[in-house]
Amino acid sequence: QVQLVESGGGLVQAGGSLRLSCAASGRSFSSYGMGWFRQAHGKEREFVAAISWSGKNTYYADSVKGRFTISRDNAKNTVNLQMNNLKPEDTAVYYCATDTRALMGGSNYYRGGTYNYWGQGTQVTVSS
Question: Which residues, in sequence order, are bridge partners of residue 50?
């Protein structure tokens, strides 16, 4: 079992920054790829960013590329999402997820089905 707990969400003005963190407990965190997804009210969940188990490979949705940075600290069992230049359209509940089945290779990193453990989410609201 893996438990994931997100933190760092909140209310920020457009152009501002937030840093989300996801703390993992349970099985060997450093062996698994991690991802961030978001779901705005009334919309489907969408991929935001992902990072390989080693941290060497990162992936981003086009909508956040250049503004968001995903990183991980395997010693602390955390994965972070630094979000800069936030826009009102970034408003959503943000979820972290982990892939303990090693399915993230190739082009699967953006698929929700690749990840088998999910956190409860943290709300990010960007005001205009």
Answer: 35, 59
pLDDT per residue as tens digits for the range 80-103: 999 999 999 999 999 999 998 888
Please list the ranges in the chain whose pLDDT falls under 70: 27
How many C-beta atoms lie closer than 10 Å to residue 105's C-beta?
A: 12
Cα first-last separation, the chain: 40
CA dihedral in degrees (127, 60, 70, 40; nearest 10)?
30
Q: What is the pLDDT of residue 120?
A: 97
DSSP structure string for 78-98: EEEEEE-S--GGG-EEEEEEE
In angstroms, what CA-CA distances link 127 with 11, 34, 86, 124?
Answer: 7, 28, 9, 10
